[in-house]
């Protein structure tokens, strides 16, 4: 058991370390766009003997804290993956409370009034109340002059690519373009203009918590040249110092952009 004196000393040391890390960051080495795969909520709950919903609540509460950290260092765009298309197959007794938690989290982010909320995902796969909460958040924050926050709910990278190609085909068909003509001239930019994140910079840095070292379908197209940072901490335990370490790691890398 940690004594109050030892805890106070530990907090002081961490405070000094955080300030040192912050001072070491160069403004011109801050990622413009950070993607974050929030992983480990269920394990966090089970480790504490709590119901899974408690882990999801703790994870949802961490999101605004993370966004403030991003804002403080000058990040322009953040994409937070809250629910994948695969997650939609979870048992109803877990999925339904999770969707309510997501709705509440999005409403709370909207109420802060500091960031522009943009839902990314297949909203047609979501229950009506969840889809409406996401749309309402986007409408309510559309004039906010702040960091852009992509809320990825019902998101899957393969589904996004399928939706982009479908949208492209429908758009070109409406112009009277034949499939043969389209096949002859389509390029990567044509597809990019139909992604959920169209018009945004691709993520410079993708962070995943809980020790898993895979993308799991997150921003498959956009992350082709991203840097990756895998953190052992479960998402509810992800600390400011963990965030600063991720930014420092990114800043120390020599980006070659595939060359």
TrEMBL record:
Listed EC numbers: 2.5.1.-
InterPro entries, per database record: UPP_synth-like, UPP_synth-like_sf
UniProt remark on cofactor binding: Binds 2 magnesium ions per subunit.
Lineage per the UniProt record: Bacteria, Bacillati, Actinomycetota, Actinomycetes, Propionibacteriales
Record family assignment: Belongs to the UPP synthase family. Z-FPP synthase subfamily.
Keyword hit for Aminoacyl-tRNA synthetase: no
Main EC class the enzyme belongs to: transferase
Stored Pfam families: Prenyltransf
Oligomeric and partner information: Homodimer.
Identification of the protein by name: Isoprenyl transferase
Annotated binding of Mg(2+), by residue: 39, 227
Binding positions (substrate): 40-44, 56, 84-86, 90, 208
Organism: Kribbella karoonensis
């Amino acid at each position: 058991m940690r004594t109050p004196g030892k805890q106070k000393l530990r907090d002081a040391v961490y405070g000094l370390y955080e300030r040192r890390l912050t001072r070491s960051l160069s403004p011109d080495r801050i990622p413009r766009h950070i993607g974050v795969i929030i992983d480990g909520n269920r394990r966090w709950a089970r480790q504490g003997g709590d119901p899974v919903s408690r882990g999801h609540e703790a994870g949802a509460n961490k999101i605004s804290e993370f966004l403030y950290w991003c804002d403080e260092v000058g990040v322009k765009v953040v994409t937070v993956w809250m629910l994948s298309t695969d997650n939609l197959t979870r048992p109803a007794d877990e999925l339904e409370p999770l969707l309510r938690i997501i709705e509440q989290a999005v409403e709370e982010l909207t109420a802060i009034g500091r960031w522009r909320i943009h839902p990314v995902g297949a909203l047609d796969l979501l229950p009506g109340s969840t889809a409406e909460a996401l749309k309402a958040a986007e409408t309510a924050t559309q004039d906010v002059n702040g960091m852009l926050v992509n809320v990825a709910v019902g998101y899957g990278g393969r589904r996004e690519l399928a939706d982009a190609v479908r949208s492209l085909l429908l758009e070109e068909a409406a112009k009277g373009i034949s499939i043969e003509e389209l096949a002859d001239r389509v390029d990567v930019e044509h597809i990019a203009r139909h992604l959920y994140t169209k018009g945004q910079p691709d993520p410079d840095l993708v962070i995943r918590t809980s020790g898993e070292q895979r993308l799991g379908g997150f921003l498959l197209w956009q992350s082709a040249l991203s840097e990756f940072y895998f953190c052992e901490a479960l998402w509810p335990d992800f600390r400011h110092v963990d965030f600063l370490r991720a930014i420092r790691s990114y800043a120390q890398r020599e980006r070659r952009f595939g060359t």
